[in-house]
């Protein structure tokens, strides 16, 4: 039986999935996707599948992938999704199939304990902070028993904590094969296992790190696999451009100073005036940072079209960057001179030389096909340069696959990209264009949910214009509060800006004070997982729950059941026009004679709206109302295109119908008869 037939049989009524999985029910969309994936795995090529919520796309690609006998690389968006796939979905299917498949999960090096750095922290007896010392002791204890070295095994240890940064490596701070812990190294072990596995699960960050060979000395995964599956592919471009570009910040330079200080003390004490060299560099970095901070408050992204970021004097900027370069060069030269005798300093010399080259590129004008910006945080400056899309990068890896005559003997022959939202047109151009997949085969599989009955869309009339921010936010809060009052909470408010988040959160918290039976949770007022846990629980001791959130919550909330019945979106989520990347993409389209609004801003907004709306219905039994509190959906010509991108929900036309739908939901009925 060929793969296509095996897969069709597996998903059929009475097939082995029905026998192995108690909850499995054959769904035409899921089978269609699985068969298409099987076909691509057999024939090679590129398949892009938009599979609506509830299709069960994970099984649709896992079953053919596992049955294909090929080595498969699967990439998903986040470490949490990676863990879910590796710990839950994959083992279930591998066991049901009874195949002796080796599975591996590979994360980035910052996820793994670096034994060399742990030993350094121990020897140097830093940090002095007792809380940090306790955390280091805890890690030392755990390090004696762990097999994977994955810091996620330590409960409560935040990934971005100071102590995690101290005991992990970066590609720059790893000392490579001269490391005393090379044999036991957790990073090396995880990579070796990944190279031997039949199925390896990575995340998009790592996928691009591997594609770009940014991590020297590591064999690439990509050439050794037969097929690649990219899940949550809508995040690919966003993640990829970070890797395809350059980032250089004052934090990187300061970490370099820290590592040089530690190593020269051990290996080259007295061979150069290290204190003076390091002190001068530190001072130059501080001046550079102070100058950058003059351009904007913490959190700002400053445009950088000419020789300096906007708002900063060209000459002062050039002087500051030049001074950092001069001090860095002096340090690198000193390292180069001693590296011949003190071999342990060679990696630091190379790292310094790379930093210097990056700094030099930021001293040059911005290339035409890239965008550059400066970010100011509370403590640091970060210069970034990025291509406008990952199209060119992806084409260098995928193009040969499409031409079977020139396809390399090694490397993936089949590429499958999937997500619940990949475009608002039949060709899924929003996705395929940014990823350079113009000739891909495209498949759209509709959600099996009965949206027309399960969900209703309400675009209220008579609200203030979105441009009247203060009045608009107050009106949205009023509307969401009214809905939540009828439903006993169960309301998620998604905002497009942090200002609106604060304003709407404040209005709702004032309205539902402590004595009201309602908890109003606002993003930023607690850790995300704590807010989500409370919201998912629904009504607690008679208290309902409203969650007001922005940014990552637009696509990161999965609350099946009655805990979520009302989603209120404050405005159409157009990309901020003054964002440097958005500006640069718009300029590029204009230069090509295309419309930045129709070809970029509108599809971006439609995709984001679709993501936000997707929070409402997660199961076949869910029901609810989506409110888009933006009159432009009614009044503007493009409103129709945006509504069409949404699932086919029943349309509520008036305030009376909205009230009636709320009451029906509160009584446990569908929102409309
Ligand atoms: S090889 Fe690199 S990552 Fe591994 S223990 Fe040594 S320094 Fe750390």
Describe what this molecule looks like in 3D:
- Among the domains are: 246-387, Four Helix Bundle (Hemerythrin (Met), subunit A) (Up-down Bundle), CATH 1.20.120; 451-666, 3-Layer(aba) Sandwich (Rossmann fold).
- 48% of the residues lie in helices and 13% in strands.
- It has 27 helices and 18 strands.
- The protein has a seven-stranded parallel sheet, with helices on both faces. Strands 14-15-13-16-17-12-18 form a seven-stranded parallel sheet, with helices on both faces.
- Helix 23 (580-591) crosses helix 24 (596-613).
- The chain is globular.
- Mean pLDDT is 89; it is low at 401-408.
- The structure holds iron/sulfur cluster.
Uncertain segments of ≥5 residues (pLDDT<50)?
A: 401-408
Mean pLDDT comes to 89
Query: Architecture of the domain at 451-666, CATH level 2?
Result: 3-Layer(aba) Sandwich
The biggest sheet, with number of strands, parallel, antiparallel or mixed sense and barrel status, is: 7 strands, parallel
How large a portion of the residues is in β-strands, by DSSP E? 5-15%
Distance between the termini: 48 Å
Strand order of the largest sheet: 3-4-2-5-10-1-11
Q: How many distinct helices?
A: 27
Question: Which CATH class of the domain at 451-666?
Answer: Alpha Beta
**Cofactors and ligands:** iron/sulfur cluster
C-alpha Rg (nearest Å): 27 Å
Which structural class do you get from the secondary structure elements? alpha/beta
Shape: globular
CATH topology-level fold name of the domain at 451-666? Rossmann fold
**How many strand segments?**
18
| Helical amount | 40-55%
